[in-house]
DNA sequence: GCACTCAAAATTGTATACAGCACCATATTC
DNA sequence: GAATATGGTGCTGTATACAATTTTGAGTGC
């Protein structure tokens, strides 16, 4: 049996998801004993996983008091969006210089093939997954593992808010309209890349993300109301 | 007797430095028992610190085989420099929009006051510290904690190579010339910021870092020769 | 009602024990 | 001699125990 996934890894992945979706409430203290029995492991591997998550910015740690969920505030989310802009604009720049015509054409095929899914999809979670998958495919073409790595971390930490945004803010406009705007931004960036128009690709990507960033404050407000409201 | 800094934090800081300067050789396996006695602690807190460093990219981990030092290759260093470009150009962009005239003037004072130190300084380590301090002061003006955080991590991971670069590559040109080039780049960026010339500030910063990036392959070669040569 | 004290309970921090896997050297077979 | 078994050694993975610390809460005085 290939224990490629060790127990710590299993716990880590699980906790990472829980933290990403704020199953720990912002700033809430994490009880190690309770969590360890819940996860069916002892405190030793649990704490190892928790320490990794601290280093990744999902949790905080206070000596003598233990682990806490990261806080949630508009400022923190704004910072994450800004970091995304930094990373994704540079990614687009690198892709424009490094990706082959063929790779870009493949990506265009991928984009076209998923368009029907975007239109038909009603589940915000799935919609977000598709969007992230597309952004990560572009990222891969940058040939920079470090940028990919940072982007993955940022995406995970901002995902819950993006989900709220998608569900409660953009839900106001008709579905067909919002997804089309999204899709069109994707298409515009990719077309610019194919034409090797770096400036256009970069600035389109920048505005694509910044538009969402500007909704962050409102999204955080809604997120709080969701987190502290009894489940339906 | 838990101090404000817990034992794990102490171990963590120590290991972080050791990893930054490749006191663990690239890809070398880390013996937990030996290291724990060396640090005067048991394996439990040691492993917690090691897990944090894995999450930060200083170490790697293989299930069942333990912890290893991160590898060192030109590609990895290039990636780090590229990530630095991404972060620092966005930082400059934000600073240009957000920093007050007063803050920028203060920074100019700081720059001027350290110029004599740059000229007189013979120690590459100190030179690098001053350079990093300056870059971090700019970063702070961006008001983005996330970008600051990412930049700190990147700086720590690339520091050893920058040191080698400074010591063995740029040592070839006369000291006065190289430090002046460095200083002048700093001054050009800052002047552009004061004039609110975003494009100039961003592109100068970009080239300032990219120039070093282009030396990375050679620097890594030298780094290897230094790491595996008996100490002087 | 409010602040303060102090002991009990809960929780974290770390050492240690031990099971099991990985690695290495030696032996064995062809 | 090369390739493959095999046993020993050392290391990692995790549970558990216990000390140290923080938190809680009841009781007391004002």
From TrEMBL, chains A, B:
Range of residues in the leader sequence: none
Taxonomy, superkingdom: Bacteria
Record-linked Pfam families: FCD, GntR
Protein name: Transcriptional regulator, GntR family
Gene Ontology molecular function: any one: DNA binding
Organism, scientific name: Pseudovibrio denitrificans
The keyword Transferase is annotated on this UniProt entry: no
PANTHER family, per database record: GNTR FAMILY REGULATORY PROTEIN, TRANSCRIPTIONAL REGULATOR, GNTR FAMILY
Domain HTH gntR-type, chain residue ranges per copy: 5-72
Keyword Lipid metabolism: no
This protein's UniProt keywords: DNA-binding, Transcription, Transcription regulation
